[in-house]
Design brief:
The chain is α/β, with parallel strands linked by helices. It folds into two domains: 148 residues, Lyase, Ornithine Decarboxylase, Chain A, domain 1; 215 residues, Alanine racemase (TIM Barrel, Alpha-Beta Barrel). It is 27% helix and 25% strand. Strands 3, 15, 16, 17, 18, 19, 20 and 21 form an eight-stranded mixed beta sheet that branches. It has an eight-stranded parallel beta barrel with strand order 4-5-6-7-8-11-13-14, surrounded by six helices. Helix 4 links the parallel strand 5 and strand 6. Bound molecules: pyridoxal-5'-phosphate. Pyridoxal-5'-phosphate (PLP) binds next to strand 12, strand 14 and helix 10.
């Protein structure tokens, strides 16, 4: 028997799994299986809680790569101050739901056509290198538009406890600290509309003190750079990195503590940043817990000492739960038998998908109530980096259906 992660609090204490007011069985009856259901009511509650915890001066941005489903963007866009995109495709989706003035575009390897689309729309480009900066300036000059440009800084520290480290070392992301002042001067001299700094030090951290410490270091770094350049950045994007509990023993980030500490840091910020605005950008913290992947048991089989529940969907839709997306050691996401949430668990079972690869394992030897063909298995924490981060074409099954549900989306 192996442990699994905690079921998000929105779905505990239920006899039959209910998502946005309807049972999993209902959702599957209407939309088929496998299926992702996202409850935007949960997203609204989380954003409101975070908004209340953060100082007013700090906006919340949604990094849409966590869940770029158009219906999700429509629901989330009004809840947040900005959208962060990472490709021309994401930019086009974001522009449908948010004013360009509140969209920023980060990511290495932006092509000229992507730079041009952002400049024409009036979105902010978070520049990843000097070369990209020159291309953006050239395109702006050709179009007769002063491009909105921010500089992504490769910080000289990293977010401790971060699942995905993005600072403190050589990186395809951002410009090394020592090179930033010269680049910002170049942008200003060339007549660009310089928007400030984007400083992203890591992702998926559950370490509240580390997040607090990193945010303080990020504000200090922005102040140091601004002093050296001698100009106030209009916006300092402090990155994000708030994780969610996926695995046994994980505890959530204490956002009240983070918000209070950031409030103190901003209240005491150096004069140079007096007129700056601030933002944090989050993906998985905002949407990760709102989504459930529902898949139906096709076969129950015994092999050796192990019992397998073979389901109609697997890593082709929800790669992350199989442990093959950004984790080193495979551990179990929380899963449940949707129709019997409150039943006593039986012997260990492994939940596997239909793909011909041993990687296709959604849960490894977990304690679940007795289940067999026709039962719906719920895989939680499927709201971020689920469908869009999975190899849907691999083995040629149909893509999973995705449904956005909740107060405004019946
Ligand atoms: C991916 C990404 C995010 C979102 O990360 P989460 O872990 O989903 O919060 C935010 N900012 C940048 C620059 C990113 O690349």
């Amino acid at each position: 028997m192996k442990p699994m992660g905690p079921i998000p609090p929105y779905f505990t204490d239920q006899r039959e799994l209910t998502i946005a007011g309807r049972t999993a069985a209902d959702w599957v009856a209407e939309h088929g299986s496998p299926l992702f259901v996202y409850d935007v009511g949960i997203v609204a509650e989380r954003v409101a809680r975070l908004r209340a915890a953060l100082p007013e001066l700090c906006e919340i941005h949604f990094a849409i790569k966590a869940n770029p489903l158009p219906a999700m963007l429509e629901a989330v866009a009004p809840m947040v101050g900005g959208l962060d995109v990472a490709s021309g495709g994401e930019l086009a989706k974001a522009l449908k739901v948010k004013d360009a003035a509140h969209i920023s575009f980060a990511g290495p390897g932006k092509r000229d056509a992507e730079l041009e689309a952002a400049i024409v729309a009036g979105a902010t480009l978070n520049l990843e290198s000097e070369g990209e900066a020159e291309r953006a300036l050239t395109i702006g000059a050709r179009l007769g538009i002063a491009p909105r440009l921010a500089v992504r800084v490769n910080p000289d520290f990293e977010l401790r406890g971060s699942g995905m480290k993005m600072g403190g070392r050589a990186s395809p992301f951002g410009v090394d600290v020592a090179r930033v002042p010269a680049l910002v001067r170049r942008l200003i001299d060339a007549g660009a509309d310089w928007r400030g700094f984007h400083i992203f030090a890591g992702s998926q951290s559950l370490d509240t003190p580390a997040i607090v410490e990193t945010q303080a270091a990020t504000v200090a770094l922005a102040a140091r750079l601004a002093d050296e350049i001698g100009v106030t950045p209009p916006l300092v994007n402090l990155g994000g990195g708030f994780g969610i509990p996926y695995f046994s023993g994980d505890l959530p980030v204490d956002v009240d503590t983070v918000g209070a500490a950031l409030g103190e840091v901003l209240a005491a910020r150096p004069e140079r940043l007096a007129d700056s605005k601030f933002a944090i950008e989050l993906g998985r913290w905002i949407v990760g817990e709102c989504g459930v992947y529902l898949t139906t048991v096709i076969d129950r089989k015994q092999s050796g000492e192990e019992t397998f529940l073979v389901c109609d969907g697997g890593l082709n839709h929800q790669l992350a739960a199989s442990g093959n997306f950004g984790t080193v050691v495979r551990r179990n996401y929380p899963v449940a038998v949707a129709g019997r949430m409150d039943a006593e668990p039986g012997d260990a079972v492994s939940v596997v998908g239909p793909l011909c690869t041993p990687l296709d394992r959604l849960a490894d030897r977990v304690a679940l109530p007795d289940a067999g063909p026709g039962d719906v298995i719920a895989v939680f924490l499927a709201g971020a980096y689920g469908a869009s981060a999975s190899p849907a074409a691999f083995l040629g099954h149909d893509p999973a259906c995705e449904v956005v549900a909740g107060p405004a989306h019946p």
